[in-house]
């Protein structure tokens, strides 16, 4: 089977107001319920999820920051929620009930998952509900690349890859924007991104301990004339819509001055809570990265001590040390 794209971009025709994925007020789960079948709770020790990650005790600032509407939760799992979060969930359920919508027997009956969408939409119930419906449509139509040879070929191109973990044990996903310029179908590149996101969620995170990733977007060799603005915007949209609450921070590095203007066009599609997680850096980014990542988790080209990567089909995971946390 080939790819079946459904990025739910602003031009995809999938308006959030088309309620064809609900029936008598109940979400049709289909692939969504299959998706949340417990894999995100797996804490088995593997080469991708070592004991340092499984036994990691996150500090408070890695779990949640702030209070009330200005708070930001980073780890959801099934941790206790505060009074504000519980209240907003009850209010959201009351709003849905007034619309004759039930979340019973759906993935969204998990209040922690519901909270991801509430927080991601700044507790706007209408936007959160539209977002949930849009996500369910996307997940129902979501397909991975099933041709293994095609997938391996795409992975070898290194559009994005995994290298190391940050000081909070969060996997680091690195995007090489210059690789986007090789003429490959943007749809295929997006599916490589999906592949790594799904890989991280199911194989590298640790329930209640490590539930986010960090992104480094390398814009080296990107200019005003070749900047893949449309693709970068598509990645940003899909990241914030379909993987709510998973992004810890995105650092743009080697950012040409001209891109700062282009960024305004990209950032318009993102909520403030997502924009707050994004940092733009020029070629002088060493101190910014080392604030949150240890040197041995970064390649030499990024001012770290790890060898530069030339093979991208497997995560590269330098040795972790408990003291790093």
Automatic annotation (TrEMBL):
<dbReference type="Pfam" id="PF00650">
    <property type="entry name" value="CRAL_TRIO"/>
</dbReference>
<dbReference type="InterPro" id="IPR036273">
    <property type="entry name" value="CRAL/TRIO_N_dom_sf"/>
</dbReference>
<protein>
    <recommendedName>
        <fullName>CRAL-TRIO domain-containing protein</fullName>
    </recommendedName>
</protein>
<dbReference type="InterPro" id="IPR001251">
    <property type="entry name" value="CRAL-TRIO_dom"/>
</dbReference>
<feature type="region of interest" description="Disordered">
    <location>
        <begin position="1"/>
        <end position="29"/>
    </location>
</feature>
<feature type="domain" description="CRAL-TRIO">
    <location>
        <begin position="162"/>
        <end position="310"/>
    </location>
</feature>
<feature type="compositionally biased region" description="Basic and acidic residues">
    <location>
        <begin position="1"/>
        <end position="10"/>
    </location>
</feature>
<dbReference type="InterPro" id="IPR036865">
    <property type="entry name" value="CRAL-TRIO_dom_sf"/>
</dbReference>
